[in-house]
Amino acid sequence: MNKYDVIVIGAGPAGLSLASELSDANLLLIDAKNEPFKNIACAEWVPKLKYFAEFKISQTEHMELRIKKESIKIKAPGYVIDRQRFQRTLLKRLKCSVHTAERVTHVDKNTVKTTYGTYKADWIVGAYGPIGPMNEKKNTNYFLPAINVRVGLKQKIEHTIVYFSDEILHGYAWCFPRGNEANCGIGARNKNLKALLKVWLNSLEKQGIIVNTTYKEAHAGLIPLFVLQKTIHPSHILVGDAGGFTDPLTGAGIITAIESSKMASLLIKGIINRNEYEDRLKNSHLAKYLIRRKKRRDFMESTWNNLEKAIKKSWISFYRE
Asked: Which CATH fold would you assign to the domain 46-81+143-222?
């Protein structure tokens, strides 16, 4: 049985960031996918930070927010990044052991069992996304299903488009520029997201924004709406989506995944103890930010029958932190 200092389950932004922070540890990174940087359901927008500059495809300065037929523009400087290249690059830079195409079947105390073996570690980190072997089961109300595709852009746009309508229940449609393409999608509680996506793409085509509605493949996923999950065992910790570090209002999760991993690395390195970690997390800007966002999502959903009020009293464009 192989023994490590740390085992990280999941090679997304949270797991890769944590593995990078723990470069001196005897660390094993496990992911169920053969190529964990592919087939990702993500709008790929991040704030305009130097850290992401090498991965940018497009740069945006504002967001066009549409509520039914109303259109509002607000400042929103950021990058649309190549998420695949971002994760592939971080993965290549790691010096630790990496096992891909290996699925974790069970986690118990200091032991991880997979489809290929059993491993032990002082710390086991869940960084696998919203659902995994270290999470309690949650009902569907804790998640927002999402689907995204790439289509050709007919005209160059330098801003993001976010669209709200009564039919897109508790979520929104988006169109983000990606060079000559657009990353378009829907996040909503509706059962048939593909039907909604088709309506959205038809609308964008009629407006002359995209070439046509043809796309090669669609990627679907779940956006976690729960926030700040506690660790399960003294040697376990959750980061990123698994730990409830996703913005429950917008669904953004890359930045918060990285921040949660940096905080977790302090505990794993022994710079702070568990009580200090929990206290620091509780009082951190990140935790307070996510809790405020969750309250605003709850308000948005409870007032959805009055869409204009629901959005203008909750959404980031109108209600700044």
From this structure: D-Amino Acid Oxidase; Chain A, domain 2 (3.30.9)
What are the domain boundaries of the chain?
2-39+83-138+226-306, 46-81+143-222
Q: Enter the DSSP assignment of 240.
A: G
Q: What is the pLDDT of residues 42-59, one digit of tens each?
A: 899 999 999 999 999 999
Q: Is the pLDDT of residue 321 over 60?
A: no
pLDDT of 136 > 90? The answer is no
Helices marked H in the chain — which ranges? 13-21, 83-93, 193-206, 254-269, 274-282, 285-302, 307-312
Task: Count the helix, strand and coil residues of the chain and give each as a percent rounded to the nearest 5.
Answer: 30, 30, 40
Q: Which amino acid would we find at residue 277?
A: Y
Q: What tokens were used for 41?
A: 């359901």
Task: Return mean pLDDT, the chain.
Answer: 93
For the domain made up of 2-39+83-138+226-306, the CATH class stated in words is alpha beta
The H or E element that residue 308 is part of is helix 307-312
Q: Percent of the chain, pLDDT > 70?
A: 98
